[in-house]
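Message: I would love a firmer grasp of how sequence relates to backbone shape in proteins. Thank you; the sequence and its tokens follow:
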Amino acid sequence: MKRIIPVLLLFISTYSFSQTDTTKPFSFSGYGEFYYSYDFSNPQNHLKPNFIYSHKRHNEFNLNLAYAKAAYNKNNVRANLALMAGNYAQYNLSTEPAWAQFIYEANVGFKLATKHNFWLDVGIMPSHIGFESAVSSDCWNLTRSILAENSPYYETGIKVSYTNKKENFNVSFLVLNGWQKIQKPDYTHKPSFGIQLNYKPTKKITLNYSNFIGTDKPDSLNALRLFHNLYAIFEPSDKIGFTVGFDIGTDKYNVNDYIFWYSSVFITRFKLNNKFKIAARVEYYNDKKQIIIATSTLNGFKTFGTSLNLDYKINNKLLWRIEGKYYKATDKIFTSSSANANNTNSSITTSLAIKF
């Protein structure tokens, strides 16, 4: 509660100020998402499986994410600062130092060329990997895919980016502290790198390739993580859309040997009318040697998932959502209220989000 109160006070004050402030180049925004989720495995510690970091708590009303953001953008300079609270911050940033666990975004950038959209940004930024963010109302599904939950949501470093005049092509090069790190661990000194290519050949199609080259292991292991993220978004009309994504990575699983893991996801969304939307997701994640997701089982993490959600747009600021989700794994990796583990897991989640 001590962590939540300061951010909520800032969240409320930002909302109040943003209603009357018209000063430019500053802008202010905020977001809050409250949720209730029930896991039918009924975990006694109220925690969902270890590969889930958002909407984490079972059978209780909770705050997934709230942030207040101030932004500056004028001429050749831009900056963002956002402070946050909630389960997302609690579980995704649990390994960060205490001072960093409240920071959703903190960066500053300047334009490198007067006639071209060529920027350099430094600080804590949203990840260049994936099509899902921590902000649920920006995503087609209420909860995140396994793919998104187990790849970086945020990153810290330097980014050089270029956008063409048509604004349909963007390329970025990044030097990073590591795989979803604000503060680089003491045992790691090597830098990590990333590239993103985003292309929109038409207004209906988005194509993206992102990668990560680096490590989150001690330098003494001499390990190198190579990770590739690809996705395509196709929206043939304002009624329906499709997203397909694929991740593949390689890393050391012991002192000498490398192994790969991969994940795929397919999402479709359909707009029923101006108030209601439905979205369905099918996904699969294979991490046999448990590079990313630990299970301590023979076959590692091999899990199929599916979900279905309904959205109701109350007004331009409020969004209510409900989602049912089902997982089936090769091994019995899901704990329950009984002493026995299961290879299936199901849950239902509902949320109310406000954004301004």
